[in-house]
User: Which sequence fits this backbone?
């Protein structure tokens, strides 16, 4: 089997070490003998996103979001929506998460239109949410029921009726600091504010994405197990540390 990954705007939307997510996907697939091809896609390119198995869209500052916003709408919007509706796996973090929604309203009141693939809207708040986050996942993940990461965002994201949360907040602020929810899920598209990067800290989530991506193209796929003893101990230690710091 082969896993074809699109890294969307790697030159612009990679503020919080999101390249670590790509490394994790690559290594955890290749350790199982799965061939991996990573294709960068940036401004001026309009690929058929349905040809990919997995799309990663990282985070960025308002400046970078403005740069990619018009490109998304004019060259990529239709194909991205079609791919998500067809079940292509998407992981969007922070700025990427915001731009897959209806809009992002900046602190100055400028409204950046999003792709509209996710039923969410985001508005900048007066302060930033910064710190460790622990959520209870709503997904059928093996290994641990929790996900852990680090948030640093001023955006307040609100879910519409067509999306469900990635998880419920145990520690941290999550989407907006009010409703106790973090991230969103729509079909095989996942949005989140969890940096860290998220996938090295949550190998069970990384495997969930890989399994979903391969199963779309090849039928139901069961991934061979890896020895994740060290990774899961680190995950549990991060959860315990975050819980301790919040009290």
Assistant:
């Amino acid at each position: 089997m082969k896993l074809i990954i699109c890294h969307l705007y790697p030159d612009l939307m990679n503020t919080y070490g999101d390249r670590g997510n790509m490394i994790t996907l690559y290594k955890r697939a290749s350790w199982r003998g799965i061939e991996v091809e990573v294709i960068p896609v940036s401004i001026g390119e309009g690929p058929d996103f349905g040809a990919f198995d997995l799309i990663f869209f990282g985070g960025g500052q308002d400046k970078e979001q403005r740069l990619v916003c018009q490109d998304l709408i004019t060259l990529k919007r239709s194909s991205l929506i079609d791919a998500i509706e067809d079940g292509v796996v998407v992981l969007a973090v922070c700025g990427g998460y915001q731009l897959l929604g209806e809009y992002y309203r900046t602190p100055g009141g400028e409204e950046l239109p999003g792709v509209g693939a996710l039923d969410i809207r985001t508005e900048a708040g007066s302060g930033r949410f910064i710190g460790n986050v622990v959520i209870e996942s709503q997904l059928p993940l093996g290994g641990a029921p929790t996900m852990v990461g680090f948030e640093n965002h001023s955006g307040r994201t609100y879910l519409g009726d067509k999306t469900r949360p990635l998880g419920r907040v145990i520690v941290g602020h999550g989407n907006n600091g009010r409703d106790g929810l973090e991230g969103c899920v729509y079909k095989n598209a996942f949005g989140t504010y969890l940096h860290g990067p998220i996938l090295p800290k949550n190998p069970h989530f990384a495997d969930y994405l890989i399994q979903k991506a391969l199963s779309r193209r090849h039928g139901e796929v069961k991934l061979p197990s890896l020895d994740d003893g060290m990774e899961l101990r680190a995950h549990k230690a991060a959860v315990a540390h975050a819980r301790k710091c919040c009290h």
About this structure: The longest helix spans residues 62-85. Helices lie at 19-30, 62-85, 95-99, 198-201, 203-218, 229-245. The CA atoms of residues 81 and 117 lie 5 Å apart. Residues 2-245 form a domain with the Rossmann fold fold (CATH 3.40.50.880).
